[in-house]
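Re: that backbone. C-alpha cells:
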C-alpha cells in the first residue's frame, strides 16, 4: 500500500493587496485565502483565477466570516460599549490603516454604517463621525497583526478594533491580560474568500489536491479547526 502526498502552497491574509501582488509577481500559490473579495478579483482579472471563482465553492467561495468587534482592556476602564464611545476625546483607538488593510476597511465601513443609522442617513454627519474616529487613532499599522502588537504588547490605546474571530483568539492567547470582546450594535459582514489559482495548479498538476484542500475548509472538521484558530 502506497500513499501519494502533494504539497499545497498557499497565501493568506496579509496587508491589503500584498498577497495578490506576490502571486502576480511569481509566487506559486496553489490556493489563496483572503479577507476581502477585491484581492481575488485582482487575480481573476489577470487570468490567475477563474472569472466565476465564487461559483466554485459554497457560500460564494467563503467558508467562514466574521464582523468588526472591539477588544478592551481588563475591566473595560473606559466603559466602551459602542461606536459612539470610540469618538470620545478620552479614548484612543487602535486599528490598521484603511489604505493598506482590508481589516481596517471593514472597520471604516462598519463605523460609517453606524453613523448613518444614528443620523438618519445624513452623510455629512457620518463623514464627520469617521473623521473623528480616525483622529483618535494614535498610530496606523499597515496590517492587523501590527495593530494587535501595538495594542496588546506595547499596551497602546484603549480599544482594538478587528474581526470578532480575532478578538476571541487574542483573548485566549493573552489570558493573563484579561482582555474582553465587545460586540457593537452595528457591524458589517466580512466574508473570507478562497480560490484555486488555476494558472499555478495547471502548471504544477496540483488541481485535485488544491480543490480537496479548499473543500476541507467547509467540512465539519475544517470548520472546527477554523473555530479554534
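Recovered sequence:
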Amino acid at each position: 500500500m502506497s500513499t501519494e502526498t502533494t504539497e499545497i502552497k498557499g497565501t493568506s491574509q496579509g496587508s491589503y493587496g500584498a498577497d495578490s501582488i506576490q502571486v502576480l509577481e511569481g509566487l506559486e500559490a496553489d490556493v489563496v485565502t483572503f479577507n476581502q473579495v477585491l484581492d481575488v478579483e485582482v487575480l481573476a482579472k489577470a487570468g490567475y483565477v477563474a472569472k466565476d471563482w465564487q461559483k466554485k465553492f459554497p457560500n460564494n467561495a467563503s467558508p467562514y466570516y466574521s464582523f468588526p468587534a472591539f477588544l478592551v482592556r481588563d475591566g473595560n476602564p473606559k466603559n466602551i460599549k459602542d461606536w459612539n464611545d470610540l469618538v470620545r476625546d478620552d479614548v484612543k483607538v487602535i486599528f490598521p490603516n484603511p489604505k493598506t488593510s482590508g481589516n481596517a476597511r471593514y472597520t471604516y465601513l462598519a463605523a460609517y454604517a453606524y453613523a448613518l443609522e444614528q443620523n438618519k442617513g445624513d452623510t455629512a454627519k457620518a463623514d464627520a463621525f469617521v473623521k473623528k474616529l480616525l483622529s483618535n487613532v494614535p498610530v496606523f499599522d499597515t496590517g492587523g497583526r501590527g495593530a494587535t502588537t501595538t495594542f496588546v504588547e506595547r499596551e497602546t490605546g484603549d480599544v482594538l478594533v478587528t474581526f470578532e474571530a480575532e478578538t476571541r483568539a487574542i483573548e485566549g492567547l493573552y489570558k493573563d491580560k484579561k482582555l474582553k470582546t465587545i460586540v457593537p450594535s452595528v457591524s458589517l459582514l466580512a466574508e473570507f474568500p478562497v480560490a484555486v489559482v488555476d494558472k499555478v495548479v495547471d502548471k504544477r498538476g496540483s488541481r485535485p489536491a488544491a480543490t480537496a484542500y479548499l473543500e476541507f475548509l467547509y467540512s465539519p472538521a475544517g470548520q472546527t479547526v477554523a473555530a479554534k484558530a
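The longest strand covers residues 68-72. The chain has two domains: 10-64+191-228, 68-182.
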